[in-house]
Design a protein that fits this description.
This protein is of the alpha/beta class. About 50% of the residues lie in helices and about 15% in strands. It contains 15 helices and ten strands. Bound molecules: 5-phosphoarabinonic acid (PA5). The site of 5-phosphoarabinonic acid has 15 residues, from loops.
Length: about 400
């Protein structure tokens, strides 16, 4: 269960005018080929196959490698980190990689993987993303070395259904492939094959995840209220939204949120800049600025009730003290509380934030589903690498 508090530590929020809400709903209905993420039943139909594949992977490897970046990485990584006990050794070990160009870290990973029984899930909707393909290219020889003639059976490719280096590679070697449908954008894909397969391998309950999401879909007014409130803050001059967490297990969840909102709304010179804060850690560094610096932001606190009652009381008191203190410097707070960290609650929150990102984009009059800005650096980098004679030809 999730509770939302849009009122304390915040001005009394106005609710979105009915006509505006209706207009947004109507507009969303006309967005053909962009709203596949809304169709949770489509994903439910794939659960059995995903669970069977996950069992096969679990039984046949010591290390499960997930390679991807952005929407093809963050959601699964966020839930994996939030739902696991980091001090328990797990089999298979799950390693997420691919979010930078090959570097020292990858060299070290290669040493670590040498001789180990692996399974690789490489995820990219386009199938061409530089960071993903280069990382895969670097790790493939290791897999071939240990798996010998069986190497093609130890790869799962998650990509689109038509084209791209990964699609071609899967066809050429008859590698198992899961499809990312055209109408599901990268950052809206955690509840699709993109996020569900790695999470099923990690033995997370992907059925509950989808159930939670369905509940959020049935309570969409909450997402409309949150989207409207953050839009009001923006209209009043706030420039940043800080997603505040108290539990480091949620660190990647705020990374996912940053991508969702920045790529959906940072367009036409508009949009709140999303940042993340971990308390108490950041109270002892950025806390000074928050208390006495410029009043650029508002905070959205995301907290899960701690299992230990005393620890929970500590966290709750910290949250109250922080909110009361920061509002003195005109930094208001929105509170979102989960009764525990479980799949159902995260499924709910993911879908709640999907809806909020979509509604908020319409309020700003920017398209929520593209991210053309990301292409600019990619083009420059590809050109520069060509000059250095580093090209992405094909996977071999
Ligand atoms: O939201 C998006 O579409 C992007 O952030 C992508 O997820 C990211 O760029 C990775 O793209 P791809 O899945 O094509 O490798």
């Amino acid at each position: 269960m999730i509770t939302f508090n849009f009122k304390s530590f915040t001005q009394q929020p106005n609710s979105m005018p009915k006509e505006r809400k209706e207009a947004i709903k109507k507009k969303f209905q006309t967005e053909d080929n962009k709203k596949g993420w809304y169709d949770l039943e489509r994903q439910e139909a794939k659960i059995k196959e995903l669970e069977e594949t996950a069992i096969e992977i679990r039984q046949n490897c010591d290390i499960f490698l997930v390679i991807g970046i952005g929407g093809s990485f963050l959601g699964a990584k966020a839930l994996y980190e939030a739902l696991r006990d980091p001090y328990q050794k797990e089999t298979p070990e799950i390693i997420f990689t691919g979010t930078s160009l090959p570097n020292d870290n990858l060299t070290e990973l290669k040493h670590y993987l040498k001789g180990k029984r692996m399974f690789i899930n490489v995820i990219s909707k386009s199938g061409n993303t530089l960071e993903t393909i280069l990382t895969f290219q670097e790790l493939l020889p290791l897999l071939k070395e240990t798996a010998q003639e069986d190497w093609t059976k130890r790869i799962i490719i998650t990509t689109n259904n038509q084209q791209g280096k990964l699609f071609d590679f899967a066809n050429q070697y008859q590698i198992k492939r899961f499809t990312i449908e055209d109408d599901i954008g990268g950052r809206f894909s955690v509840l699709s094959t993109v996020g569900l397969l790695p999470l099923a391998v990690a033995q997370k309950n992907i059925r509950d995840l989808l159930e939670g999401a369905k509940k959020a879909r049935s309570e969409e007014d909450l997402a409309y209220a949150y989207a409207f409130l953050r839009d009001q803050f923006y209209q009043q001059g706030k420039e940043l939204e800080a997603f505040v967490i108290y539990d480091e297990k949620l660190s990647y969840f705020t990374e996912w949120l940053k991508q969702l909102f920045a790529e959906s709304q940072g367009k036409k010179n508009k949009g709140l800049f999303p940042v993340s804060l971990l308390y108490s850690r950041d109270l002892h560094s950025l806390g000074q600025y928050l208390q006495e610096g410029k009043t650029l932001l508002f905070e959205t606190h995301i907290r899960a009730i701690q299992k230990d009652k005393d620890y929970n009381t500590l966290e709750e008191e910290l949250q109250k003290s922080v909110c009361e203190s920061h509002v003195e410097n005109q930094i208001p707070s929105i509170l979102i509380t989960m009764d525990q960290k479980n799949e159902w609650n995260f499924g709910y929150l993911i879908f709640f934030f999907y809806l909020s990102a979509m509604v908020g984009s319409y309020l700003l009059d920017v398209p929520y589903y593209n991210q053309n800005g990301v292409e600019v650096y990619k083009k420059k980098l590809t050109k520069a690498l060509e000059k250095e004679k580093i090209t992405l030809t094909s996977l071999e």
